[in-house]
Amino acid sequence: MHADLIIVGAGMVGSALALALQDSGLDILLLDRGPLEVAPWRPDAPFEPRVSALSAASQRILERLGAWEGIRARRAGPYGEMRVWDGSGTGQIHFAAASVHAELLGHIVENRVVQDALLERLAGSGIGLLPAVGLDGLRRSGDGWLVSLGDGRQLRAPLLVAADGANSTIRHLAGCATREWDYLHHAIVTSVRCAESHRRTAWQRFTDDGPLAFLPLERDGDRHWCSIVWSTTPEQAERLMKLDDAAFAKALGAAFEWRLGAVLEVDPRLCIPLRQRHARRYVEPGLALIGDAAHVIHPLAGQGVNLGFLDAATLAEVLRHAHARGERLAELRVLSRFERRRMPHNLAMMAAMEGFERLFQADPLPLRWLRNAGLKWMDELPAGKALFVRQALGLSGDLPELARA
User: Fold this and answer.
1) Please, are residues 392 and 55 in contact by the beta-carbon 8 Å criterion?
2) Which of 20, 27, 40, 54 is most buried per CB count within 10 Å?
3) Greatest CA span in the chain, whole angstroms?
4) Could you confirm whether domain 5-38+46-180+275-403 is CATH 3.50.50.60?
C-alpha cells in the first residue's frame, strides 16, 4: 500500500494534522494501535481523568477543523480567571481574560472528548484510516520509507510523521536523539466534586512538594466539579494513592487550603511519572516529529496539547504551501521550515515551565522571599499580567494560519 504521507498516531495531534491536510490533494494514511471508534456519549458519564487546558489558539484550530462543535455538544469547562498562590508564603497572583478584553482564558476539556470530536470529522473525510494496527518494523527504502505492520501488511511513503506520543515507536526506530530527564515527581490526576463552585476559575497552589491544580469542569450546569493535577514526590504519591476516597479527599482539601470548601466526591485516581523530553531535531529527510513525540513538558500549565496543535497546524501549512509549489515534501529543506517555526516557541515554553517548577521547589529562604515578592509585584503590574494572559491564550508569536484571528 502506497501513500504520499503516513501519520503514525491518531491521537489528538495526529488526527488534527490529518484533518488539516484534508482536501490538500495528498494521499494520506493515518494509523493507530487503537480502534479509532467514537465512544457513545452520555451527558451524565463520569469525567475522564486526563484533561487538557485548551487555549484560544487551540480552539480556533479545532473550530476550523470542524471539531469544536462536537466538543461543545459533549462538554467543556470554560474559565475566565486564574488564581495562583505560594503555599509557603503570602505571594499570590490573579489573571483575568478581561484584562485583554477577552471573554475566556480557555476551556478544560477531557482528552477523550477532544479525540472523539476529531474522529467524527475523520469519518468520511477521505483520509485512509488504519485502526488497531501495531508497527513491526521501519526502514528506509529508496526515496522513502517501508513500514511493516503487525498484521503483515507493508506501507510505503516518502514522508512519515510521528504523532505517536511521548514513548514514540517511530522516534525510537528512526534513531532520533532526545534530551530528557526525570522530574522525580509523579502527578495524581482525578476529578472531584467540591462544596463550593469553582466560579469558572483555574486554581493552582504551589506546595512544598509540588504544584496542585484545581481546574474547572462542568456537567449539566454543575460548577462544583474540578479536574485535579497534584504533582508530588513519588513517596508521597504512593502514600496518597493507597488512601481510601474519604482520606484522600481530606488530604486533598487540606493541601488546597480548603479554597473550595470540603472535597465531597472523588473519582478513580491515576498516578503518572513526570519526565521532560525534547527531540534534538524535529525533522530528518522524509520524517517529522510532532506533539509529544517531539516534546514533553511539565503539566504545570496544561500547555502540552496546545503546543501539539500548533505543531500540527504549522506542519500542515508548510506541507500545503510546498505541495502547491510542486516541491518534494520529504526534502529536508521543506521540513526544516516547520522546525524553524516551532522549535524556538516550544523551547521557550519548556524553559518557562522548568523555571517555574525549579523556583517553587527551591527551599532557601532568599529564594522563597524572592518568589513571594515577585508574585506580589507582578500582581500589581497590569501590563505584565496582560502579556502573560496573551501568552496563555496562544495569541502571540508566529501563529499558523489555522490559529489566527
Assistant:
1) yes
2) 54
3) 64
4) yes
SS3 of residue 247 by DSSP: helix
SS3 helix, strand, coil % of the chain, rounded to 5?
40, 30, 35
Q: What is the pLDDT along the chain (405 residues), one digit of tens a residue?
A: 899 999 999 999 999 999 999 999 999 999 999 999 998 999 999 999 999 999 999 999 999 999 999 999 999 999 999 998 887 666 788 889 988 888 999 999 999 999 999 999 999 899 999 999 999 999 999 899 999 999 999 999 999 999 999 999 999 999 999 998 888 899 999 999 999 999 999 999 988 888 899 999 999 889 999 999 999 999 999 999 999 999 999 999 999 999 999 999 999 999 999 988 999 999 999 999 999 999 998 776 667 899 999 999 999 999 999 999 999 999 999 999 999 999 998 988 777 666 555 555 545 555 555 555 555 556 666 676 677 777 777 777 789 999 998
Place of cell 463552585: 197
Nine-digit cell at 88? 509557603
Determine the Cα–Cα distance for residues 289 and 268; give it in Å rounded to an integer.
33
Nearest Cα neighbor of 315 from 213, 402, 392, 203 is: 402
The answer to whether 304 touches 297, Cβ cutoff 8 Å, is yes
Pairing of strands 5-8, 28-31: parallel
